[in-house]
Amino acid sequence: MQLRTGTLDATHPLRDGRTADSALITAYRGGKPSRRPIWFMRQAGRSLPEYLKVREGVAMLDSCLRPELAAEITLQPVRRHDVDAAIFFSDIVIPLKLAGIGVDIVPGVGPVLEKPVRTAADVAALPELTWEALEPIREAVRLTVAELGKTPLIGFAGAPFTLAAYMVEGKPSRDHLGPRTMMHADPETWSALARWAADASGLFLRAQLEAGASAAQLFDSWAGSLGLADYEKFVAPASARALDHVRDLGAPLVHFGTGTSELLVAMKNIGVDVMGVDYRLGLDEANRRLEGSVPLQGNIDPALLSAGWDVLEAHVRSVLEAGENAPGHVVNLGHGVPPETDPGVLTKIVELVHSIEVL
What are the distances in angstroms from CA 39 to CA 70, 74, 109, 198? Predict the structure, then answer.
Protein backbone atom coordinates (compact mmCIF):
# COMPACT_ATOMS: atom_id res chain seq x y z
CA MET A 1 0.00 0.00 0.00
CA GLN A 2 1.38 3.40 -0.98
CA LEU A 3 1.69 5.95 1.81
CA ARG A 4 -0.51 9.00 1.66
CA THR A 5 1.43 12.22 2.20
CA GLY A 6 0.51 15.76 3.08
CA THR A 7 0.03 18.10 5.99
CA LEU A 8 -2.80 18.84 8.35
CA ASP A 9 -5.36 21.31 7.03
CA ALA A 10 -5.13 24.91 8.26
CA THR A 11 -8.46 24.43 10.05
CA HIS A 12 -7.17 21.40 12.00
CA PRO A 13 -7.26 21.89 15.81
CA LEU A 14 -3.47 21.52 16.03
CA ARG A 15 -2.98 24.31 13.49
CA ASP A 16 -5.77 26.79 14.20
CA GLY A 17 -4.95 27.34 17.88
CA ARG A 18 -7.55 25.15 19.53
CA THR A 19 -5.40 22.32 20.94
CA ALA A 20 -1.71 23.05 20.26
CA ASP A 21 -1.31 24.69 23.70
CA SER A 22 -3.62 22.34 25.58
CA ALA A 23 -2.32 20.62 28.70
CA LEU A 24 -2.25 17.25 26.94
CA ILE A 25 -0.36 18.29 23.82
CA THR A 26 2.03 20.43 25.86
CA ALA A 27 2.91 17.45 28.06
CA TYR A 28 3.15 15.10 25.07
CA ARG A 29 5.71 17.49 23.60
CA GLY A 30 7.73 17.70 26.81
CA GLY A 31 6.57 21.17 27.86
CA LYS A 32 5.13 22.42 31.15
CA PRO A 33 1.32 22.30 30.97
CA SER A 34 -1.05 24.69 32.71
CA ARG A 35 -2.42 21.78 34.75
CA ARG A 36 -1.59 18.10 35.08
CA PRO A 37 -3.26 16.40 32.12
CA ILE A 38 -5.28 13.25 32.72
CA TRP A 39 -7.51 10.97 30.69
CA PHE A 40 -8.44 7.30 31.01
CA MET A 41 -8.10 4.49 28.51
CA ARG A 42 -11.59 3.08 27.84
CA GLN A 43 -13.14 6.17 29.44
CA ALA A 44 -15.68 6.22 26.59
CA GLY A 45 -18.14 3.41 27.27
CA ARG A 46 -18.71 0.51 29.64
CA SER A 47 -18.69 2.24 33.04
CA LEU A 48 -21.02 5.12 32.11
CA PRO A 49 -24.80 4.80 32.48
CA GLU A 50 -25.30 7.32 29.67
CA TYR A 51 -23.26 5.05 27.41
CA LEU A 52 -25.34 2.00 28.26
CA LYS A 53 -28.48 4.01 27.49
CA VAL A 54 -27.43 5.17 24.01
CA ARG A 55 -26.06 1.71 23.16
CA GLU A 56 -29.34 -0.08 23.95
CA GLY A 57 -30.20 -2.41 21.08
CA VAL A 58 -27.10 -1.44 19.04
CA ALA A 59 -24.33 -3.95 18.35
CA MET A 60 -20.82 -2.87 19.32
CA LEU A 61 -19.33 -2.57 15.83
CA ASP A 62 -22.49 -0.89 14.54
CA SER A 63 -22.15 1.75 17.27
CA CYS A 64 -18.61 2.45 16.07
CA LEU A 65 -19.77 2.98 12.49
CA ARG A 66 -22.69 5.32 13.19
CA PRO A 67 -20.88 8.70 13.20
CA GLU A 68 -23.39 10.57 15.39
CA LEU A 69 -23.45 7.77 17.96
CA ALA A 70 -19.66 7.29 18.00
CA ALA A 71 -19.23 11.04 18.49
CA GLU A 72 -21.74 11.16 21.34
CA ILE A 73 -20.06 8.25 23.14
CA THR A 74 -16.63 9.86 22.69
CA LEU A 75 -17.88 13.10 24.23
CA GLN A 76 -19.65 11.61 27.26
CA PRO A 77 -16.64 11.19 29.58
CA VAL A 78 -15.31 14.65 28.71
CA ARG A 79 -18.59 16.19 29.85
CA ARG A 80 -18.77 14.05 32.98
CA HIS A 81 -15.16 13.93 34.23
CA ASP A 82 -13.46 17.11 32.88
CA VAL A 83 -10.64 14.97 31.49
CA ASP A 84 -8.01 16.69 29.35
CA ALA A 85 -8.60 14.61 26.24
CA ALA A 86 -11.22 12.56 24.49
CA ILE A 87 -10.25 9.15 23.16
CA PHE A 88 -12.04 8.23 19.96
CA PHE A 89 -14.69 5.57 20.53
CA SER A 90 -14.04 2.69 18.17
CA ASP A 91 -12.61 -0.82 18.18
CA ILE A 92 -9.31 -2.21 16.93
CA VAL A 93 -11.08 -4.59 14.54
CA ILE A 94 -13.00 -1.80 12.77
CA PRO A 95 -10.33 -1.65 10.00
CA LEU A 96 -10.97 -5.35 9.35
CA LYS A 97 -14.71 -4.82 9.08
CA LEU A 98 -14.31 -1.80 6.81
CA ALA A 99 -12.00 -3.81 4.57
CA GLY A 100 -14.76 -6.39 4.15
CA ILE A 101 -13.47 -9.10 6.47
CA GLY A 102 -16.14 -10.99 8.40
CA VAL A 103 -15.70 -10.07 12.06
CA ASP A 104 -17.98 -9.39 14.99
CA ILE A 105 -17.75 -8.68 18.71
CA VAL A 106 -19.35 -11.59 20.54
CA PRO A 107 -20.58 -10.58 24.02
CA GLY A 108 -18.51 -12.27 26.69
CA VAL A 109 -15.93 -13.43 24.14
CA GLY A 110 -14.58 -10.49 22.11
CA PRO A 111 -13.64 -10.21 18.42
CA VAL A 112 -14.42 -13.35 16.42
CA LEU A 113 -13.56 -13.76 12.73
CA GLU A 114 -15.67 -15.78 10.31
CA LYS A 115 -12.47 -17.30 8.90
CA PRO A 116 -9.05 -17.20 10.58
CA VAL A 117 -6.04 -16.18 8.48
CA ARG A 118 -3.45 -18.97 8.73
CA THR A 119 -1.88 -19.65 5.34
CA ALA A 120 -0.08 -17.75 2.60
CA ALA A 121 -3.21 -18.13 0.46
CA ASP A 122 -5.36 -16.66 3.25
CA VAL A 123 -3.09 -13.62 3.46
CA ALA A 124 -2.96 -13.19 -0.31
CA ALA A 125 -6.77 -13.20 -0.40
CA LEU A 126 -7.13 -10.39 2.16
CA PRO A 127 -8.97 -7.36 0.75
CA GLU A 128 -7.31 -3.96 0.88
CA LEU A 129 -8.68 -1.32 3.22
CA THR A 130 -9.48 1.72 1.06
CA TRP A 131 -9.47 5.38 1.99
CA GLU A 132 -13.09 5.68 0.85
CA ALA A 133 -14.23 2.95 3.24
CA LEU A 134 -12.99 5.04 6.19
CA GLU A 135 -15.47 7.88 5.61
CA PRO A 136 -17.66 6.90 8.62
CA ILE A 137 -14.57 7.24 10.81
CA ARG A 138 -13.67 10.64 9.40
CA GLU A 139 -17.24 11.87 9.82
CA ALA A 140 -17.40 10.68 13.43
CA VAL A 141 -14.13 12.49 14.18
CA ARG A 142 -15.34 15.69 12.50
CA LEU A 143 -18.55 15.65 14.55
CA THR A 144 -16.61 15.00 17.75
CA VAL A 145 -14.00 17.70 17.20
CA ALA A 146 -16.69 20.26 16.39
CA GLU A 147 -18.04 19.79 19.94
CA LEU A 148 -14.74 19.45 21.81
CA GLY A 149 -13.52 23.01 21.37
CA LYS A 150 -10.07 23.27 22.98
CA THR A 151 -10.06 19.70 24.31
CA PRO A 152 -7.92 17.48 22.06
CA LEU A 153 -9.14 14.21 20.59
CA ILE A 154 -6.78 11.23 20.61
CA GLY A 155 -7.08 8.80 17.73
CA PHE A 156 -6.08 5.19 18.21
CA ALA A 157 -5.47 1.92 16.43
CA GLY A 158 -4.48 -1.59 17.38
CA ALA A 159 -0.83 -2.34 16.73
CA PRO A 160 -0.13 -4.82 13.90
CA PHE A 161 0.78 -7.70 16.22
CA THR A 162 -2.46 -7.41 18.18
CA LEU A 163 -4.52 -7.12 15.01
CA ALA A 164 -2.70 -10.03 13.35
CA ALA A 165 -3.00 -12.15 16.50
CA TYR A 166 -6.79 -11.89 16.35
CA MET A 167 -6.68 -12.72 12.64
CA VAL A 168 -4.61 -15.87 13.11
CA GLU A 169 -6.41 -17.16 16.18
CA GLY A 170 -9.83 -16.11 14.90
CA LYS A 171 -10.78 -15.05 18.44
CA PRO A 172 -9.15 -13.85 21.67
CA SER A 173 -6.39 -16.03 23.08
CA ARG A 174 -4.47 -16.19 26.34
CA ASP A 175 -1.08 -17.16 24.93
CA HIS A 176 -1.26 -16.39 21.17
CA LEU A 177 0.43 -19.61 20.16
CA GLY A 178 -0.86 -19.34 16.59
CA PRO A 179 0.86 -16.09 15.60
CA ARG A 180 3.95 -16.92 17.64
CA THR A 181 4.27 -20.24 15.82
CA MET A 182 3.70 -18.63 12.43
CA MET A 183 6.54 -16.16 12.99
CA HIS A 184 9.05 -19.02 13.11
CA ALA A 185 7.39 -21.77 11.05
CA ASP A 186 6.32 -19.55 8.16
CA PRO A 187 8.06 -16.17 8.50
CA GLU A 188 7.18 -15.05 4.97
CA THR A 189 3.47 -15.49 5.59
CA TRP A 190 3.79 -13.79 8.97
CA SER A 191 5.63 -10.87 7.41
CA ALA A 192 2.97 -10.46 4.73
CA LEU A 193 0.19 -10.56 7.33
CA ALA A 194 2.00 -8.09 9.60
CA ARG A 195 2.44 -5.70 6.66
CA TRP A 196 -1.28 -5.94 5.84
CA ALA A 197 -2.19 -5.24 9.47
CA ALA A 198 0.31 -2.36 9.65
CA ASP A 199 -1.17 -0.69 6.58
CA ALA A 200 -4.72 -1.14 7.84
CA SER A 201 -3.88 0.31 11.27
CA GLY A 202 -1.84 3.12 9.75
CA LEU A 203 -4.62 4.16 7.38
CA PHE A 204 -7.13 4.00 10.24
CA LEU A 205 -4.92 6.33 12.28
CA ARG A 206 -4.46 8.70 9.35
CA ALA A 207 -8.20 8.99 8.80
CA GLN A 208 -8.63 10.08 12.43
CA LEU A 209 -5.74 12.54 12.41
CA GLU A 210 -6.62 14.20 9.12
CA ALA A 211 -10.23 14.58 10.26
CA GLY A 212 -9.25 16.40 13.45
CA ALA A 213 -7.59 14.18 16.08
CA SER A 214 -4.66 15.98 17.74
CA ALA A 215 -2.62 12.90 18.75
CA ALA A 216 -2.65 9.16 18.09
CA GLN A 217 -2.01 6.08 20.20
CA LEU A 218 -0.88 2.70 18.90
CA PHE A 219 -2.24 0.09 21.30
CA ASP A 220 -0.52 -3.31 21.46
CA SER A 221 -2.78 -5.37 23.71
CA TRP A 222 -0.97 -8.67 23.20
CA ALA A 223 2.72 -7.80 22.70
CA GLY A 224 3.35 -8.83 26.29
CA SER A 225 3.16 -12.47 25.14
CA LEU A 226 6.40 -11.97 23.20
CA GLY A 227 10.03 -12.16 24.18
CA LEU A 228 12.29 -9.25 23.29
CA ALA A 229 14.06 -11.01 20.41
CA ASP A 230 10.81 -12.00 18.73
CA TYR A 231 9.38 -8.53 19.24
CA GLU A 232 12.37 -6.83 17.65
CA LYS A 233 12.58 -9.22 14.69
CA PHE A 234 8.95 -9.98 13.89
CA VAL A 235 6.86 -7.14 15.32
CA ALA A 236 8.74 -3.84 15.69
CA PRO A 237 9.17 -3.34 11.90
CA ALA A 238 5.42 -3.67 11.37
CA SER A 239 4.61 -1.26 14.21
CA ALA A 240 7.04 1.26 12.72
CA ARG A 241 5.39 0.74 9.32
CA ALA A 242 1.96 1.51 10.83
CA LEU A 243 3.22 4.83 12.19
CA ASP A 244 5.00 5.63 8.93
CA HIS A 245 1.50 6.33 7.58
CA VAL A 246 1.12 9.35 9.89
CA ARG A 247 4.58 10.67 10.77
CA ASP A 248 4.38 13.41 8.14
CA LEU A 249 1.37 14.97 9.89
CA GLY A 250 3.39 16.08 12.93
CA ALA A 251 0.89 15.01 15.60
CA PRO A 252 2.26 13.44 18.82
CA LEU A 253 2.40 9.64 18.64
CA VAL A 254 1.95 7.44 21.70
CA HIS A 255 2.79 3.74 22.03
CA PHE A 256 1.26 1.55 24.72
CA GLY A 257 1.20 -2.17 25.45
CA THR A 258 0.14 -4.39 28.31
CA GLY A 259 2.67 -6.66 30.00
CA THR A 260 5.42 -5.02 27.97
CA SER A 261 7.82 -3.80 30.66
CA GLU A 262 10.71 -5.78 29.13
CA LEU A 263 9.88 -4.43 25.66
CA LEU A 264 9.66 -0.78 26.65
CA VAL A 265 12.86 0.43 25.00
CA ALA A 266 12.23 -1.56 21.82
CA MET A 267 8.70 -0.14 21.62
CA LYS A 268 10.04 3.39 21.97
CA ASN A 269 12.63 2.72 19.31
CA ILE A 270 10.03 2.28 16.58
CA GLY A 271 9.88 6.07 16.71
CA VAL A 272 7.29 7.58 19.05
CA ASP A 273 6.93 10.78 21.05
CA VAL A 274 5.36 9.33 24.22
CA MET A 275 5.47 5.94 25.92
CA GLY A 276 2.48 4.58 27.79
CA VAL A 277 3.39 2.39 30.76
CA ASP A 278 1.10 -0.25 32.23
CA TYR A 279 0.53 -0.77 35.95
CA ARG A 280 3.23 -3.44 36.31
CA LEU A 281 6.19 -1.04 36.16
CA GLY A 282 6.75 2.12 38.17
CA LEU A 283 7.10 5.29 36.13
CA ASP A 284 10.40 6.09 37.81
CA GLU A 285 11.84 2.76 36.64
CA ALA A 286 10.30 3.20 33.18
CA ASN A 287 11.94 6.61 32.92
CA ARG A 288 15.27 5.10 33.98
CA ARG A 289 15.05 2.36 31.36
CA LEU A 290 14.15 4.90 28.69
CA GLU A 291 16.97 7.20 29.87
CA GLY A 292 14.61 10.15 30.25
CA SER A 293 14.15 10.31 26.49
CA VAL A 294 10.36 10.67 26.18
CA PRO A 295 7.32 11.84 28.15
CA LEU A 296 5.39 9.06 29.88
CA GLN A 297 1.71 8.24 30.18
CA GLY A 298 0.17 6.20 32.99
CA ASN A 299 -0.14 4.32 35.20
CA ILE A 300 -2.77 4.09 37.94
CA ASP A 301 -3.60 0.45 38.68
CA PRO A 302 -7.22 -0.16 37.56
CA ALA A 303 -7.66 -2.68 40.38
CA LEU A 304 -7.37 0.13 42.92
CA LEU A 305 -10.36 2.02 41.50
CA SER A 306 -12.52 -0.13 43.77
CA ALA A 307 -10.13 -0.26 46.75
CA GLY A 308 -11.53 2.68 48.72
CA TRP A 309 -10.62 6.34 48.40
CA ASP A 310 -7.87 6.48 51.04
CA VAL A 311 -5.98 3.65 49.31
CA LEU A 312 -6.62 5.05 45.84
CA GLU A 313 -5.63 8.61 46.70
CA ALA A 314 -2.33 7.45 48.17
CA HIS A 315 -1.70 5.38 45.06
CA VAL A 316 -2.49 8.26 42.68
CA ARG A 317 -0.13 10.54 44.58
CA SER A 318 2.60 7.90 44.39
CA VAL A 319 2.10 7.63 40.62
CA LEU A 320 2.48 11.40 40.27
CA GLU A 321 5.64 11.31 42.35
CA ALA A 322 7.08 8.43 40.32
CA GLY A 323 6.48 10.33 37.08
CA GLU A 324 7.92 13.62 38.31
CA ASN A 325 11.35 13.26 36.69
CA ALA A 326 10.13 12.19 33.27
CA PRO A 327 10.31 14.81 30.48
CA GLY A 328 6.52 14.98 30.70
CA HIS A 329 3.74 13.05 32.39
CA VAL A 330 0.14 12.48 31.30
CA VAL A 331 -1.80 10.74 34.05
CA ASN A 332 -3.76 7.67 32.95
CA LEU A 333 -4.57 4.16 34.02
CA GLY A 334 -2.14 1.31 33.50
CA HIS A 335 -4.86 -0.29 31.35
CA GLY A 336 -8.54 0.39 30.62
CA VAL A 337 -11.40 1.37 32.91
CA PRO A 338 -13.05 -1.82 34.27
CA PRO A 339 -16.77 -1.94 33.39
CA GLU A 340 -17.83 -2.12 37.05
CA THR A 341 -16.02 1.12 37.96
CA ASP A 342 -18.03 3.80 39.76
CA PRO A 343 -17.85 6.84 37.43
CA GLY A 344 -17.77 9.12 40.47
CA VAL A 345 -14.40 7.66 41.43
CA LEU A 346 -12.95 8.67 38.05
CA THR A 347 -14.27 12.20 38.46
CA LYS A 348 -12.71 12.37 41.92
CA ILE A 349 -9.33 11.25 40.54
CA VAL A 350 -9.46 13.99 37.90
CA GLU A 351 -10.25 16.59 40.56
CA LEU A 352 -7.34 15.36 42.70
CA VAL A 353 -4.84 15.38 39.83
CA HIS A 354 -5.92 18.85 38.71
CA SER A 355 -5.58 20.15 42.28
CA ILE A 356 -1.90 19.24 42.50
CA GLU A 357 0.39 21.92 41.12
CA VAL A 358 2.68 21.16 38.19
CA LEU A 359 6.27 21.41 39.43
Answer: 18, 12, 27, 26
**Measuring CA to CA, how many Å separate 241 from each of 132, 133, 195?**
21, 21, 8
**Annotation marks residue 79 as catalytic:** no
Alpha carbon distance 293, 273 (integer Å) = 9
pLDDT tens digit sequence for 309-332: 999 999 999 999 999 999 999 999
Cα–Cα separations (whole angstroms), residue 123 to 1, 30, 97, 188, 220: 14, 41, 16, 10, 21
Q: Tell me which of 15, 46, 66, 247 is the catalytic residue.
A: 46
Interatomic CA distance for residues 287 and 284, integer angstroms: 5
Catalytic residue among 18, 42, 180, 195: 42
Q: State how beta strands 110-113 and 103-106 pair.
A: antiparallel
- Reference 217, options 260, 261, 249, 257; nearest CA is 257
Q: How far are the Cα atoms of 5, 139, 170, 336 from residue 332, in angstroms, in the given order?
A: 32, 27, 30, 9
Contact 358, 35 (CB under 8 A): yes
Quote the strand ranges of the chain, DSSP E. Answer: 86-87, 103-106, 110-113, 153-158, 215-220, 253-257, 274-276, 296-300, 329-333
pLDDT digit string, tens, across residues 246-259: 999 999 999 999 99
Strands 296-300 vs 329-333: parallel, antiparallel or unpaired: parallel
Write down the catalytic residue from 4, 55, 138, 289: 55
Q: For the chain, give the number of residues.
A: 359
Q: Which one of the listed residues 28, 80, 84, 91 is annotated catalytic?
A: 91
Active site residue 166: yes
- What pLDDT, in 10s, does the model give residues 188-220? 999 999 999 999 999 999 999 999 999 999 999
pLDDT band at 65 (very low <50, low <70, confident <90, very high): very high
> Is the separation of the CB atoms in 99 and 128 below 8 Å?
yes
Residue 55 falls in the annotated catalytic set: yes
Query: Which pTM value belongs to this model?
Result: 0.97
46 is catalytic: yes
